[in-house]
């Protein structure tokens, strides 16, 4: 009978493989990449066939924009100017974020691939599993990452359900929320994938810190070990620079766009307040039908 530990290990790697498949489907991974619980990382060469899902995401982005144009009346027509511009800006920002994310994923293929190649090289050199991280520590990192993903899915699922079947039912906002689903989904996936790289880097730095802390200065060979650890730190620094290059611009744009959307929302609220609008009843507060 399989032990609890083996079940946890198998479930962790299986769930992680499923998440990596999702990252591949949304166009973030454009080369074969697998993490097996016994053989470790398997990294393939980039081929056009591995980028088919990237092209699918580009097509979905174009379709999303065309549908928004086609359904313009449902989205913006009949709203006050501030409402229409607020919705329009937020939709354009969401689509722009998807375009930048997919562009970074395409032009950063080799940078992305080099991250995993360096992790595998460090693991081979140090007899570990992923970088400096052994399998047991990696399982803990994966469990932490999977738990975060489940929390995000649960929260987003509740929000989406309330918006689709509660607050926005029968209103123009229902169309707006529907058309923004795809841009928001890609943006959330990007944040989660960035979080994975942050967790893996943090785990490797902890292992390096542990190695440095376990050194005894009077011991023989300290100088050689320090040189080896300095080389390892250099490799981790290169990986970190590649992560920043891969995610830096798109994440900065994400944050800037988020602040821009908040600014639009605040301006909209200020305008409604100045006009004394009474058309903002929320079902989640008063359990009434949402009115436009």
UniProtKB/TrEMBL annotation:
Keywords in alphabetical order: Cell membrane, Membrane, Receptor, Transducer, Transmembrane, Transmembrane helix
Subcellular location, record wording: Cell membrane
Purpose: Gustatory receptor which mediates acceptance or avoidance behavior, depending on its substrates.
Protein name, UniProt field: Gustatory receptor
Pfam families: 7tm_7
Annotated GO biological process: sensory perception of taste; signal transduction
Transmembrane segments: 6-31, 52-68, 88-109, 141-161
Family statement: Belongs to the insect chemoreceptor superfamily. Gustatory receptor (GR) family.
Membrane-topology descriptor: Multi-pass membrane protein
Native organism: Anopheles stephensi
